[in-house]
Design brief:
By secondary structure, the chain is mainly beta. It has helices at 2-9, 155-166, and strands spanning 13-18, 27-28, 33-38, 56-58, 73-74, 80-87, 100-105, 124-139, 145-154, 171-176.
């Protein structure tokens, strides 16, 4: 009986693991994953076995080296788009690739500046779960620094977001818990 317990404990199966960080909404193909030997024990049914090529989409960010949990993927079609937007203020420190952001539009006052330093009543959330990819800071002729970010945005939020960009409304990104 002892031999059986040792053999079971040492049994390894093949599971999919992320080669690099896979962002929420991103397509998962065989190029983004690697088959690894693992023994998740009683939790084995929570992970995707590497018995066939994945053709999935991440529903949440999966870190490099993590096993692909069944709850982190879906086989439904893409409903996210990649977009670069210019922000009126820099991102707070500590925002990392894969973090969720809310994108808010702020109204401009008659003088062209922001109406108040805090979010005025006319401010509106236009994207509630944008996934941060990267940021680019540029300096212009003026002494101000501009921040552009690349995000994955739900298709349902695209129209409102592009409307705000087209109206040149100031945009702010606020990190949120995932």
């Amino acid at each position: 009986m002892t031999f059986f317990a040792i053999r079971t404990a040492g049994h390894m199966d093949r599971y999919w693991a992320a080669k690099d960080t896979i962002l929420a909404g991103q397509a998962i193909t065989s190029e983004q994953v690697v088959a690894v030997e693992a023994n998740p024990g009683k939790s084995a049914n929570l992970y995707l076995p590497a018995d066939k090529a994945p053709n999935l989409r991440a529903t949440q960010t999966i870190g490099a080296g993590e096993l692909l949990a069944r709850s982190s993927v879906t086989d439904s079609p893409a409903e996210v788009k990649r977009l670069v937007i210019k922000l009126s203020s820099p991102l707070p420190g500590g925002v990392e690739k894969g973090d969720y952001l809310e994108i808010w539009k702020l109204p401009e006052s008659a003088s062209g500046g922001l109406s108040t330093p805090d979010l005025p009543p006319a401010a509106g959330k236009i994207a509630s779960q944008a996934v941060f990819i990267t940021q680019k800071k540029t300096t212009s002729v003026t002494p101000s620094e501009e921040t552009s970010i690349e995000v994955l945005v739900n298709e349902a939020d695209i129209e409102a977001l592009l409307g705000a960009v087209g109206q040149k409304l100031p945009l702010v990104a606020i990190p949120v818990a995932s």
